[in-house]
């Protein structure tokens, strides 16, 4: 077995002891987790900004509840901006990334009698060029990707059809250049096998399922199988380290819809790991990969580490309270702290890639920063994709081809790229630990009901949002900028 790979074979060597989490040493984080274990209601804040369909979302760390990030208090870094999103996924338990499992042995012994399932959530990608347009349709038909006010939601599908047809030729070119399809399904299946084996090696037998948001195997198929297998406890693990409304949030909304309408599923104890970007195992695995790539440069200490994250539209963060940007910044901070602890003091920067459409996205933009760095005289650059843990079109085509070419044209002479984590064994082991830590907090979906007062408040905020949203959508949809964007094929 490849020393760094956990996929494809049972581990030969003794697995490392359960990875501690960065937040473990933080007493505050510990108390957060104990709330998560005993009362999911305390996480629910129904008047928060992101509750399109009263889906309540939350990242699992203390950082997302407006506290100083657990990792930061541990490392005594700067304080993170308070984030407005801090909600639990309905009645299901939300698990702190640093879930502190006192009495784990008891819980563990108990869970061995259960039929445990792990559901990995991911985006999905077209497997052939013929899949590209329908895949894009599914993506743009998602109300968490194109956020229309309720009044205009009847336009969602026609708009998705239009944008997917217009964008398909450009996307097809991209997929053609990486072999004719997305590698996402294969890699995610391998990660699922790896997690299953890592869990087994830790004494927990579990079925691991893959549920994709926009392509096969769809989340609905995975849930169908979970029901068929009569799973008695489920851990939901999105394969996005950081939470975004557009990724984890969207997949959880699908789950919420399915679970709320099914008697068996609504009683199934479920734990959701909303984000895990500050887990020690993840941070260390990222630092390992960066360290290895740095050594390939003639002068590693002179290399600029360039974190490139997938962007989201600015309104997600500024208006809808998406914690994505804060979590991303904290994640980069933790990785850099880890590198410093290992003696690497490289300069670093963070930029956002892959914007789509005419609206403003998180800045700075990757392409613009690369040009600026080249102009400023940076000669060696190591690109680090940081929002996704598999190779995909945006690493293989956008970074490896487009951005590399742009960087070299802009004066950067030495280019490197850190591979995605994929099946790196320390990473897979850490995800398995996250599952084990989450398990005791599983709660059934049906244990909490919203009060009538909450419903009233929801209705009021819905009415306000609908009125303002409609006006905004009208202005946006028919603005010259959007019309120009279509003409210029920005979509
Ligand atoms: C954390 C990761 C991701 C975020 C956040 C995200 C938001 C987001 N994406 C689009 C539009 C597209 N994304 C596409 C592909 C794609 N997106 C991610 C990840 C995130 N997206 C991945 C991993 C992939 C690739 C899957 C694969 O096939 O390998 C595409 C299709 C490709 C293309 O045509 O460029 C689009 C379109 C939006 C609008 C958005 C936030 C609102
Ligand atoms: Fe995307």
UniProtKB/TrEMBL annotation:
One of its GO terms (molecular function) is ferrochelatase activity. Pfam families: Ferrochelatase. It is found in: Plastid, Chloroplast. Its EC number is 4.98.1.1. InterPro entries: Ferrochelatase, Ferrochelatase_AS, Ferrochelatase_C, Ferrochelatase_N. CDD domains: Ferrochelatase_C, Ferrochelatase_N. It comes from the Eukaryota. It catalyses: heme b + 2 H(+) = protoporphyrin IX + Fe(2+). The keyword Lyase applies. Coiled coil: none annotated. Pathway: Porphyrin-containing compound metabolism; protoheme biosynthesis; protoheme from protoporphyrin-IX: step 1/1. The chain crosses the membrane at residues 459-479. Keywords: Chloroplast, Heme biosynthesis, Iron, Lyase, Membrane, Plastid, Porphyrin biosynthesis, Transmembrane, Transmembrane helix. GO terms for biological process: heme biosynthetic process. GO terms for cellular component: chloroplast; mitochondrion. PANTHER family: FERROCHELATASE (PTHR11108), FERROCHELATASE-1, CHLOROPLASTIC_MITOCHONDRIAL (PTHR11108:SF4). Catalyzes the ferrous insertion into protoporphyrin IX. Belongs to the ferrochelatase family. This is Ferrochelatase. It comes from Populus deltoides (Eastern poplar). The lineage of its organism: Eukaryota, Viridiplantae, Streptophyta, Embryophyta, Tracheophyta.
């Amino acid at each position: 077995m490849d020393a760094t790979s956990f996929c494809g074979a049972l581990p030969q060597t003794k697995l490392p002891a359960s990875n501690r989490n960065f937040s473990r040493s933080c007493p505050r984080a510990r108390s957060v987790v104990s709330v998560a274990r005993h009362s999911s209601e305390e996480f629910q804040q129904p008047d928060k900004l992101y509750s399109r369909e009263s889906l309540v979302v939350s990242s699992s760390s203390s950082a997302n509840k407006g506290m100083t990030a657990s990792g930061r208090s541990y490392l005594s870094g700067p304080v993170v901006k308070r984030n407005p999103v801090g909600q639990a996924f309905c009645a299901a338990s939300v698990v702190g990334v640093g879930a502190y499992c006192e009495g784990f042995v008891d819980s563990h012994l108990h869970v061995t009698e259960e039929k445990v399932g792990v559901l990995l959530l991911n985006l999905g990608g077209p497997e052939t060029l013929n899949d590209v347009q329908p895949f894009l349709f599914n993506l743009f038909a998602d109300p968490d990707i194109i956020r229309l006010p309720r009044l205009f939601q009847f336009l969602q599908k026609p708009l998705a059809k239009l944008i997917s047809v217009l964008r398909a030729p450009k996307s097809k070119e991209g997929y053609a250049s990486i072999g004719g399809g997305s590698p996402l399904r294969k890699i995610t299946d391998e990660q699922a096998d790896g997690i299953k084996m890592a869990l087994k090696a830790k004494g927990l037998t579990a079925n691991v399922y893959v549920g994709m948001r926009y392509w096969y195997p769809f989340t609905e198929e995975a849930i169908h199988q979970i029901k068929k297998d009569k799973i008695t406890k489920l851990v939901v693990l999105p394969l996005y380290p950081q939470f975004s409304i557009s990724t984890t949030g969207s997949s959880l909304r699908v789950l919420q819809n399915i679970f709320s309408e099914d008697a068996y599923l609504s009683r199934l104890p479920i734990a959701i790991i909303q984000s895990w970007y500050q887990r020690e195992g993840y941070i260390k695995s990222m630092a390992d990969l960066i360290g290895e790539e740095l050594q390939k440069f003639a002068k590693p200490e002179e290399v600029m580490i360039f974190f490139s994250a997938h962007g989201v539209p600015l309104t997600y963060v500024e208006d809808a309270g998406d914690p994505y940007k804060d979590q991303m910044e904290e994640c980069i901070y933790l990785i850099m702290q880890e590198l410093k602890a290992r003696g690497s003091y490289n300069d670093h920067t963070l930029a956002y890639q892959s914007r789509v459409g005419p609206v403003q996205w998180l800045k700075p933009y990757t392409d613009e920063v690369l040009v600026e760095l080249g102009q400023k005289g940076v000669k060696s650059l190591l690109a680090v994709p940081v929002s996704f843990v598999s190779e995909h079109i945006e690493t293989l085509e956008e970074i490896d081809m487009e951005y590399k070419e742009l960087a070299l044209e802009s004066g950067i002479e030495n280019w490197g790229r850190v591979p995605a984590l994929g099946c790196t064994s320390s990473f897979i082991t850490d995800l398995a630990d996250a599952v084990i830590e989450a398990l005791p907090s599983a709660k059934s979906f049906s244990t909490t009901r919203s009060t009538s007062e909450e419903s009233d408040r929801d209705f009021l905020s819905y009415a306000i949002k609908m009125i303002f949203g409609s006006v905004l959508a009208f202005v946006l949809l028919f603005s010259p900028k959007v019309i120009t964007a279509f003409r210029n094929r920005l979509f």
